[in-house]
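Fill in residues.
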């Protein structure tokens, strides 16, 4: 269902035909990197958090972790990840397919600065076996992001 919503969402940008539907799982960074024949750092993982009373998404490079001090500095609160059930309900995508596209109203999207190291990245498209290759300007445009943030620890 979420994949279909993302396909419909991408029609407005004329890129719905660029969605890659995989025959294998891409539910984790490692699985996605293997299935897409790319480095884990180029998988654009989307993490879901609760900030106050609102869910937010932070899109990061696949091989990095949230730096709690940086997160607190950027958002003024402790990082509190959503549960799988909360993500499905509040974001509209299940864990393994969470992406910044076709999300529920009121969900703010933030892009982590480390993504700027890459010409293209591969975010999921609403299911645990889908992705799309986007340039960073395309990711900005299609995600409707609020702003760039620095909330991760570099590793790639």
């Amino acid at each position: 269902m979420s994949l279909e919503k993302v396909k419909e969402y991408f029609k407005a940008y004329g890129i719905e035909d660029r969605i890659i539907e995989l025959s294998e799982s891409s539910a984790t960074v490692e699985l996605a990197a293997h299935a897409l024949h790319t480095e884990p750092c180029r998988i654009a993982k989307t993490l879901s958090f609760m900030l106050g009373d609102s869910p937010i998404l932070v899109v990061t490079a696949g091989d990095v972790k949230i730096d709690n001090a940086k997160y607190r500095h950027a958002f003024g609160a402790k990082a509190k990840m959503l549960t799988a059930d909360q993500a499905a309900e509040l974001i509209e995508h299940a864990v393994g397919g969470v992406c910044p596209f076709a999300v529920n109203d009121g969900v703010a999207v933030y892009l982590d600065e480390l993504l700027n190291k890459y010409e293209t990245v591969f975010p999921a498209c609403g299911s645990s076996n889908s992705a799309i290759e986007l340039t960073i300007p395309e990711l900005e445009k299609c995600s409707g992001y609020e702003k760039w943030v620095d909330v991760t620890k570099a590793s790639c």
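The mean pLDDT is 96.
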